[in-house]
């Protein structure tokens, strides 16, 4: 078999805003008219994948980065962006049957896609998404593929064709793990500074044909995909209401201070 | 939006804007204050393929025209003229290899320069030879298969930071400008050292240094073109490179105009934004008109060069001269719009003004540009 070190980077399209609006009737995110971007943590995953590829190439090995996303047809745009940032190939997993997937169904779909690819040695994911925020897809995917998973990697200390050494910051210490490949890791923003796209990357991204795999291509059963394959379902999602009460204190400065002090005391603040 | 840019040209603009916003603007004041060469930013520019633009595809470049170089230079100059100068100076250093280099020299040097792994510099100016480039004193004496260089170059942009230097030296004294030859000299060559780093009014983050040659022995194969072609090499290089200096002027002027316009809409005096005063409005209108005129001339010059026209010295000089004069005027006016705040380092326009001044001086003073324009007019007529 050809000896190429293949890296898979899983990415997701998310709303490019911090002001997320929710449709109160359907309990889903309002996506219309909202600009979408690559999930910010995934940009570090792409960069790390490309850096590992470059490291491999510098030491004379062949390496390749493939970006994968599951989502509607318009998710193709983030795959093109991944190519402009140095990914070599991209695959879109898109099917109506994938809609409404929770983290489990998403991981299962990704697993089936990864299984279709040959020769992959490393999977990199962002540590969590901006919209779902669970951080579950990475470990679930690794579990389904029966490979080691190291979450929250902050640096790749060493990588060869056989092993990877990863450092991460725990609450009060650094931890270093060495695991056999293939493996999966998730990364946060402390691992690198993602590059600006290159002109050749942008031109390649524009012209690249991105294959779309549907549920049949992944040989999946409809009951295992999307909403029907999901163990969790969102019953209600809402923006919490913050109620602020403002009381104006009047009178002379001494009276104001006195009243403020009394009030703070009542509230057990002082 | 510039409606006639191609998709690829728009990509160049977008990449540069991202570099400006994410990498340059957050650090430019500090780089300026401390005079730190923006190595990380130059590396990022290299990774983004911007050094590849003008280098032919056969040598790892993208084979674009000068127009694309001007687009990139203008956008980078909107962020910081020190960065744009460092970028453009590498181009000035490698254009002689493109226009005069042998196949072997191109194969050897251009791929690394295209990739941004190495950067270049252009060494012509000397303490006694500025506008009068014909009076350079650095000597190149032939010794078998080598030339021995002796002399000092002054105010060399990217000096010390560049890996590849195009050096102009007298190989045949007594023949004036025709006795000058151009050589490629690599950093690290024995007898090639760097002198003092200059402390400058503007473009403080760009590296400006002396190059000192003491019995520096370089292979005869490093000569660009044939002996005595140095002056022609320099002039042909300038014909290609000067619109990019104009583009620097357009970029810094555009940046100053943007700051002035934003400020005028938020700064209140006498209870209203100062943009409601006709005195300010007229200044902004003049600044904007000058920027557009300068851009039009720079783009026109670049397009004419890219069309393959040979006699471009006049238009090239005009674009450099006009756009750099606009840069000076617009940056000064921007400070005036900001008033006292414009004079303070908390706002970016004082730096833009200090930076803009160099554009009227380097790559041929604007007085020399007028000489070039007048001579061409007299020689070839108006068109």
Sheet/helix structural class of chain B: alpha+beta
Number of helices of chain B: 12
Query: How many helices of chain A?
Result: 6
Q: What's the average pLDDT of chain A?
A: 90
What share of the residues of chain B does DSSP label as strand, in percent? 15-25%
* Range of helix content of chain A: 25-40%
**Main interface: chain pair and counts:** A-B, 10 and 18 residues
CATH architectural group of chain A: 3-Layer(aba) Sandwich
Q: What average pLDDT do the residues of chain B reach?
A: 96
Shape of chain A: globular
Concise summary:
The complex is a heterodimer of chains A (270) and B (383). Chain A is an alpha/beta fold and 270 residues long.
Question: What features would you describe in this structure?
Answer:
- The complex is a heterodimer of chains A (270) and B (383).
- Chain A is α/β, with parallel strands linked by helices and 270 residues long.
- Chain A has a single domain (4-229), classed as HUPs (Rossmann fold, 3-Layer(aba) Sandwich).
- Chain A has six helices and 13 strands.
- Chain A has helices spanning 40-58, 76-84, 103-116, 137-145, 199-207, 253-266; strands spanning 4-10, 13-15, 22-23, 28-29, 36-38, 62-70, 89-93, 120-126, 149-159, 163-169, 174-180, 183-187, 212-213.
- A nine-stranded mixed β-sheet of chain A has the order 11-10-9-12-8-1-6-7-13, with helices on both faces.
- Chain A is globular and about 85 Å long.
- The mean pLDDT of chain A is 90.
- With 383 residues, chain B is α+β, with helices and mostly antiparallel strands.
- Chain B has three domains: 7-118, Acyl-CoA dehydrogenase/oxidase, N-terminal domain (Butyryl-Coa Dehydrogenase, subunit A, domain 1, Orthogonal Bundle), CATH 1.10.540.10; 121-228, Butyryl-CoA Dehydrogenase, subunit A, domain 2 (Beta Barrel), CATH 2.40.110; 231-380, Butyryl-CoA Dehydrogenase, subunit A, domain 3.
- Chain B is 52% helix and 15% strand.
- Chain B is built from twelve helices and ten strands.
- Chain B has helices at 7-24, 28-34, 39-47, 66-79, 81-100, 103-115, 230-266, 278-306, 313-338, 340-343, 349-356, 366-380, and strands at 120-123, 139-143, 146-157, 164-170, 180-186, 192-197, 208-219, 223-224, 268-269, 272-273.
- A four-stranded mixed β-sheet of chain B has the order 1-4-5-8. In chain B, strands 2-3-7-6 form a four-stranded antiparallel β-sheet, covered by helices on one side.
- In chain B, strand 2 and strand 3 form a beta hairpin.
- The longest helix of chain B is centred in the middle third of the chain and has 37 residues, at 230-266.
- Chain B starts with 6 loop residues before the first helix and ends with a helix.
- The A-B interface holds A 195-203, 206 and B 7-8, 11-12, 14-15, 18-19, 22-23, 44, 47-50, 52-53, 62.
């Amino acid at each position: 078999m050809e000896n190429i070190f293949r890296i898979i980077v899983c990415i997701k399209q998310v709303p490019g805003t911090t002001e997320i609006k929710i449709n109160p009737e359907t309990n889903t995110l309002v996506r219309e008219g909202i600009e979408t971007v690559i999930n910010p943590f995934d940009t570090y995953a792409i960069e790390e994948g490309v850096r590992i590829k470059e490291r491999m190439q510098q030491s004379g090995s062949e390496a390749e980065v493939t970006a994968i996303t599951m989502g509607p047809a318009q998710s193709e745009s983030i795959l093109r962006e991944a190519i402009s940032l140095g990914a070599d190939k991209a695959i879109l997993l898109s099917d109506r049957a994938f809609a409404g997937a929770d983290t489990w169904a998403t991981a299962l779909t990704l697993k089936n896609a990864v299984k279709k690819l040959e020769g992959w040695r490393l999977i990199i994911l962002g540590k969590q998404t901006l919209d779902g925020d669970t951080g579950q897809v990475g470990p679930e995917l690794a579990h389904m593929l029966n490979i080691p998973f190291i979450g929250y990697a902050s640096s790749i200390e060493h990588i060869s064709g056989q092993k990877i050494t990863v450092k991460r910051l725990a609450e009060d210490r650094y931890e270093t793990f060495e695991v056999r490949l293939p493996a999966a890791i998730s990364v946060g923003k402390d691992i690198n500074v993602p590059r600006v796209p290159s002109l050749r990357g942008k031109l390649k991204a524009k012209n690249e044909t991105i294959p779309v795999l549907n549920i049949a291509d992944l040989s999946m059963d409809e009951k295992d995909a999307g909403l029907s394959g999901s163990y969790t379902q969102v019953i209600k999602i809402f923006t919490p209401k913050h109620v602020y009460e403002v009381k104006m204190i009047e009178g002379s400065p001494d009276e104001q201070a006195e009243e403020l002090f009394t009030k703070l005391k009542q509230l057990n603040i002082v | 939006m510039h409606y006639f840019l191609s998709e690829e040209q728009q990509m160049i603009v977008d990449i540069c804007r991202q570099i400006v916003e994410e990498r340059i603007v957050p650090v430019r004041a500090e780089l300026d204050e401390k005079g730190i060469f923006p190595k990380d930013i130059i590396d990022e520019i290299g990774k983004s393929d911007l050094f590849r633009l003008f280098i032919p595809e056969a040598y790892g470049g993208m084979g674009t025209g000068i127009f694309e170089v001007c687009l990139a230079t203008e956008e980078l100059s909107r962020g910081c003229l020190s960065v744009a100068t460092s970028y453009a100076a590498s181009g000035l250093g490698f254009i002689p290899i493109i226009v005069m280099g042998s196949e072997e020299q191109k194969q050897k040097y251009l791929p690394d320069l295209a990739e941004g792994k190495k950067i270049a510099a252009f060494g012509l100016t000397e303490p006694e030879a500025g506008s009068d480039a014909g009076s350079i004193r650095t000597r190149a004496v032939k010794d078998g298969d080598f030339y021995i260089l002796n002399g000092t170059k002054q105010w060399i942009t990217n000096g010390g930071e560049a890996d590849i230097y195009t050096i102009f030296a007298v190989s045949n004294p007594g023949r004036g400008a025709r006795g000058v030859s151009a050589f490629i000299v690599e950093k690290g060559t024995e007898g090639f050292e760097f002198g003092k780093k200059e402390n400058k009014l503007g473009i403080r983050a760009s590296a400006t240094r002396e190059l000192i040659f003491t019995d520096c022995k370089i292979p005869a194969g490093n000569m660009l073109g044939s002996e005595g072609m140095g002056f022609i090499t320099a002039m042909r290089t300038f014909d290609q490179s000067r619109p990019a200096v104009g583009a620097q002027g357009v970029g810094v002027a555009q940046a100053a105009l943007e700051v002035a316009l934003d400020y005028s809409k938020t700064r209140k005096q006498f209870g209203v934004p100062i943009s409601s005063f006709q005195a300010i409005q007229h200044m902004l209108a003049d600044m904007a008109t000058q920027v557009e005129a300068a851009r039009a001339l720079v783009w026109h010059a670049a397009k004419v060069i890219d069309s393959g026209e040979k006699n471009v010295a006049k238009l090239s000089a005009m674009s450099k001269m006009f756009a750099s004069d606009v840069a000076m005027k617009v940056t000064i006016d921007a400070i005036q719009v900001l008033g006292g705040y414009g004079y303070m380092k908390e706002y970016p326009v004082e730096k833009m003004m200090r930076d803009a001044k160099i554009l009227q001086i380097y790559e041929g003073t604007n007085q020399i540009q007028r000489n070039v324009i007048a001579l061409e007019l007299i020689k070839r007529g108006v068109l």
